[in-house]
Amino acid sequence: MPQSQKRCTSLVNLTSDIGAVMPDKLTLGFSRISARAMTTQLNRDSEQLQPKQPTLFDRIFRDSEGNIVIAQMPNLPILLGSTAALLQFVLPSGNLQTAFSLVAFGALFTWAWQELFEGVNYFRRSLGLIGLVTLIMLGLNLTGG
Question: What residues form DSSP beta bridges with 62?
Fold first, then answer.
């Protein structure tokens, strides 16, 4: 007799011996009640594991880590643009003022572009869009276009 048949035969003998001693305790598989209970528990567990749909507030104000982000530390383009804009208004008209005006426009345009396309949430991206539109409108107004 092959080894696998010996194992099956001994398992059947063991099962029948247990069934003879404790016939009401023998279960070969799950009963319907325990299977339903396990299915219900699995369904509850899977509902808890499914990610919740983000709300509109979450999409607008939260970053990818779940933090609410409205203001951040200023980055280099906004610092440079703000400084150049202030110096532009302080200096008398001339070549230096024009140079600072161009630096301010370029730096603030870069900041707005970065916020629009790389902002951490929709609020930051909308700030970039507003900044970009404002800069374009001011640029067209100042040049007389």
Answer: 68
Burial 23-46 (b: 16+ CB within 10 A, else e): eeeeeeeeeeeeeeeeeeeeeeee
Q: Measured between alpha carbons, how far is 87 from 93 in angstroms, rounded to an integer?
A: 11
pLDDT one-digit tens code per residue, 75-122: 999 999 999 999 998 988 899 999 999 999 999 999 999 999 999 999
Q: In what helix (H) or strand (E) does residue 140 lie, and over which residues does it extend?
A: helix 122-143
What is the Cα–Cα distance from 123 to 57, expressed in whole angstroms? 10
> CA-to-CA distance for 37 and 41, rounded, in angstroms?
6
- Which residues, at least 6 apart from 110, have a Cβ–Cβ distance to it below 8 Å? 77, 81
Spatial separation of the C-alpha atoms in residues 106 and 12, rounded to whole Å: 84
Task: Please report, to the nearest 10 degrees, the dihedral formed by the alpha carbons of residues 101, 103, 108, 113 taken in order.
Answer: 130
Instruction: Give residue 61's Cα distance to chain centre.
Output: 11
Name the token pair of 127.
Answer: 């700030």
**Cα(68)–Cα(130) distance, integer angstroms:** 20
